[in-house]
Amino acid sequence: MARRRRILLGVSGGIAAYKALELVRLATAAGHAVRVVQTPASQRFIGAASFAALTGAPVLVDEFERDPARGAFPGDPQPDHDPLSHLELAANADIYVIAPASANTVAKLAAGLADNLLTSAALAATCPLLVAPAMNNHMWAHPATQDNVALLRARGVTVLEPPTGRLASTGEQGAGRLPEPRALLEAVEALTRPPLAAPSADLVGLRVLVTAGGTREPIDAVRFVGNRSSGRMGFALAAAAADLGAAVTVVAANVALPRDPRVAYVDVETAAELQDACAAAFGEADVLLMAAAVADFRPAASLAGKLKKAGEERLRVELERTPDILTGLAAVRRPDQTLVGFAAEHGDGALAYAREKLAHKGLDAIVVNDVARADIGFDAVHNEVTILTAGGETHVARASKAHVARAVLDVVAGLREPTAEAAGPAS
Ligand code: PMT
Fold this sequence. Notes:
This protein is of the alpha/beta class. It contains 14 helices and 19 strands. The protein folds into two domains: 186 residues, Rossmann fold (3-Layer(aba) Sandwich), CATH 3.40.50; 214 residues, CoaB-like (Rossmann fold, 3-Layer(aba) Sandwich).
């Protein structure tokens, strides 16, 4: 079970408030203690009784209302005195998550207003603040909202990028959705992760290049050959490397996950674009972590318009090999760079086959995952891997991708430690 966090959840007014219920359900199922504060407007969408039932704790809306739980989180003892609710809840929280954050609430947070319990608690909070905006796409794109978001980020607030897709108003499409509750919980756990116990895995001062997601190779203007990579593994590696002090760049192939403000992103679609982006960044990198699922084949020709199906019973799409990007980078590597590949394998002989890849691709380590399993690997929240190096192998049992990422970086840190021989004789 994950380490228990005290999560203060602020719910503001918007249709996406219904997703906050699922976030609470997932968070409590993962063993976290959750308290909820709501704006009056949010109660037009979801009532306090639903949050109270899921959290097992009173829900607060009014600043002048006393908290029957006296600012305690479920499972914690209540103080003898009767504290001010917004101060005590914020003081006891490990993280304050505002999801959904309406355009109005984002603006109030940026202006430092404290006109309701949610915004007062935000001003009082000294714990990490995670804001997940959700609104109409035009409201999100408005310069006022974008300025407010930039100001909050500059102050150290983590503001998640709202994914693009169908919005609440009929027929509306665009950026403004609340991230899925599971992604929100992942962001909460990542922001409240304790510092790594082993100081040996310090990456301070290193530049880490990560690839994430799955490439899409166009057949025509609307169709593509792709794969099920979500980008979670690559993004978890990036977050873990940033936690350890590295300067991180992610080349993201079609990843719709929340962005980490500490990380630089280059968005790409195809294997060719991913190759170009990697070629541009590789020279500067000390470590390459190649978690992207890159197409091995792409349509030899792609149509500019949309393929017509009239009269066709069968369609042949000729595919051609894509270059092996990792092998290409390994061929021009410097000896001081550390290269880690991933191997999507299954069946008997997976490790032997991956060990062969380690050698012929010229890598320092390869992370093998079984892509035949639905509970790990592609588009799963967890992974289970074996990390192969020239000197041995480390098995990491099924765990969150954040945990697996830490284990990969421990191996990287170990590979980069100077050997006694290289360090010279002890004085
Ligand atoms: O994104 P998630 O949903 O979290 O899923 C994570 C993952 C399953 C995609 C990830 O853990 C993983 O296994 N990524 C590598 C997938 C893959 O393409 O494996 P491969 O065995 O086909 O390729 C071996 C290595 O060569 C990989 O590092 C790959 O990035 C690289 N490669 C592959 C083909 C190609 N043309 N160029 C490459 O550089």
